[in-house]
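Entry:
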Amino acid sequence: MQSSSWADYPARRFGLRFWLVTLAALVGIAVTASLGRWQLSRAAEKESLQAAIDAQGRLPALDAQALLGAADPVALLHRPVHLRGLWLAERTVFLDNRQMRGQPGFYVLTPLALENSSTVVMVQRGWVQRNFVDRTALPRIPTPAGLVDIQGLVVPAPSRLYEFAGEDKGTIRQNLDLGAFAQETGLPLWQQSVQQTGDDGAGLLREWPVPKTGVEKHYGYAFQWFGLCALLTGLYVWFQFVRRPAVRRFPRHG
């Protein structure tokens, strides 16, 4: 019979299976820790973006001259504005299936021809409840004929919803593309829109969603990845060391 000495113990204890499990655990721990750190970096980026959005909203309101004189309209997003012009009521558009206070209805958008300018700005005037009996019935929206002053924020066009194939035209629409609407109507539309705030007596609801970057989502993902990393580490230590079956020790033969 072949003798077995105590010197053979490490070879039996740390055999091929041990090293394969160790390698797999190290890879899993490294990957999950890396993903957790990446989510934290994304959260930091989103926090910086949210801070920039909040800072834009605290800046003084721009007038039409400053608005149109900006080299990059995108840089003005979320900036307050104070504009004066004429409503082009005949070009009013009702965006369907938009919600506010949990109720479906219309977003009402009307172009505003700026005073002393050939430029037209599309204004998101507010939300109104739809007629649930007759889906084609439009609510009556008071629209002054003379010069009006409005306050608001520079925003992109309303977010796109799913739409069926075909042209999205007419007074009631699912979505509104500013470039396509400019070509359709011939209006010299500005590249961004304005989300009206305050109360002008039109009876429209203006509880617009606050722009959020979703930083909480990234912190949640980071917590999940780091939790999985800790779980892998704990399972590896438990099964490879704490609960590992004891290796039988063979006596020395003289």
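Strands lie at 80-87, 93-100, 103-114, 120-129, 147-155, 172-173, 189-197.
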